[in-house]
Every structure is written in C-alpha cells, then in structure tokens.
Amino acid sequence: MITVNKPGMQMTIQDLGRNGYRHIGVARSGALDPYAMIIANRLLNNPDNTPVIEITLGLAQLTFTTDCVVALTGADMKATLANSPLAPGWTYQIKAGQKLCFATSRSGFRAYLAVKGGIVCSPTMGSCATDVAAQFGGLTGRALQTGDHIPITHYNGIWSQRGAISPAARQHIRVHSSPHKHLLTEQSLTAFCQTTWHISPNSNRMGLRLTNQACDLTHIRSLPSLAVGPGSIQLPPSGEPIVLLNDAQTTGGYPLLGTVISADLHQFAQLKPGDTVKFSYVDLAVAAQAQSKLNAHLQQLKLALNTLKIKR
C-alpha cells in the first residue's frame, strides 16, 4: 500500500489511456508522457500498460506500507528516499515505512512512478486512466488527495538496479500541415512557425495555451464542430494557440493550425508555464520516420533489459 501524504499540484493514476470511445465523447486520458511511463514499466519488467502514478510539478510525499521495487522516470523533481537522493531513469527498492519525497522539478514537469507488479486498480472502459473532468478511472475518478491509500503489489524478491535513457527532447516540435489552410493566411502560418511561444499558466491536461504578445493571430472565424484529438492545435479568436492534450474534448469549432506528430506530442508533458517552444511543419514521411526512430529506441531498451534478465 502507498499512502499519499502530500499530492502536490496534481497526482493521478494513469495508464496508456482508453481508446475506442471518442465517438461517444470520452477522452483518451492516460499518461501525458507515455514514453516515460513505458520506460518505467520496462525497467521493472511490467507490461507497458501497467498503471503508474503521474506527478505534476512535485512538492509531493508518499509513504510505503509494504516492501516494493519502483522505477522513477520523467521530470527530475529532486526526489529523495529516506533522505537519499534519487535520479530519474532508475529502479529503487523501497522498504515498508519509508517515505518518498519530491521537491519542485529541476527539469521537466511530470514524473512517473511505476511499481513492480503494478498498482491495483479496476479498469473503466478498458483503462485505469484517471479522467478528472468526467470523474471516472483511477481512484474514484479524481486526482489523488492527502490520506488516500493506493493498493500495490507486494514484492520482496530478487531485484537489481537498472537504468535507462529517455528519448532526447527537441527544440522544434514537428507538426502536420493545417487542414484549414484555405481559412488561414500564409502570413499566419509562417508567423506561427517563426514565433517562439511561451507556455501559459492557463494550461492543464486538457491543453497547453501558447502566448506571445508580439505575434497577432487574432481572427473571427468559426467552423462547424469537427473531430479533434491529442495534438490538434486550435486557433481560438484570441489568437493564442491551444495544443490539445489527452483530456481534451473530442470536438471543436476553431480552425486548426496543424497537428503535432505523434513522436513529438509527449514532449508537451514536460513543458511547464514559462517554458518556450517553436514549431516546424513536416510531411507524413518525416513523421513516420520520427515514430519509427522512437519505436526503435524503446525496442532496443526492451532487448537490452531482456538480455540482462537472461544473464542473471
């Protein structure tokens, strides 16, 4: 069992999300940085979709009431276990009664805590992902709170400390071209890519709002509702683009500046208010190549960890 002493800014139970329900208005939800989550689970030889705890910003504290082995990935939140520092990207053994503490993030914005054997959680619509807006999944459909008890699998078997390198971050986020080019001027699309955008504090798991007072993309256009999803970049009348994330609505009536390619979308999980980002348009071939490269990184990690397991 894990007891939540301090949940920090936001702490939720997530997996890779629920698919196949967008036609009835159900968001995908799930870990905003799925690759950090997958790496954490692979370090523990868990199935990739094993539920984890997603920790936003830090300032959190957990107490473990049973022995277990965990993996910590994603943002570096200056974590400590019994006052000893922990680095992200590694596995650690935790004894009953020990406290795992997180300060504010040194780099990144979301950390992932996986447990050997997994968190015990009943799925809703095939997933344990917490959808706070819809109030289902995770622990009774809400963010974790002080005093919550999270059931986990007890494990006191053989373990060895293992680590992994996460995919490198990019300075420019790659984007598929806009399906609404006919509604937007060439100058607007060029300005979107040439501008250094700032992450607004008015951002959450539904979407990241981008700001730059020097770039004016204001408009008065609206569209009939159309399907949108994680990665869609909406342009509301204010001219401040919104990058939709996992908890976003399934339809929208704003023009789209484009769609973030799947290989780059996870990077928005690690951007905090005040961080900057730039965009560049790419074609489908580049997007497919980027996804193949990312998949190869994860496959190499899996093979390397399996080799270590065989040698033991």
UniProtKB/TrEMBL annotation:
<keyword id="KW-0378">Hydrolase</keyword>
<dbReference type="GO" id="GO:0016787">
    <property type="term" value="F:hydrolase activity"/>
</dbReference>
<keyword id="KW-0067">ATP-binding</keyword>
<keyword id="KW-0547">Nucleotide-binding</keyword>
<dbReference type="InterPro" id="IPR003778">
    <property type="entry name" value="CT_A_B"/>
</dbReference>
<dbReference type="InterPro" id="IPR029000">
    <property type="entry name" value="Cyclophilin-like_dom_sf"/>
</dbReference>
<dbReference type="InterPro" id="IPR052708">
    <property type="entry name" value="PxpC"/>
</dbReference>
<dbReference type="Pfam" id="PF02626">
    <property type="entry name" value="CT_A_B"/>
</dbReference>
<protein>
    <submittedName>
        <fullName>Allophanate hydrolase</fullName>
    </submittedName>
</protein>
<dbReference type="GO" id="GO:0005524">
    <property type="term" value="F:ATP binding"/>
</dbReference>
<feature type="domain" description="Carboxyltransferase">
    <location>
        <begin position="23"/>
        <end position="297"/>
    </location>
</feature>
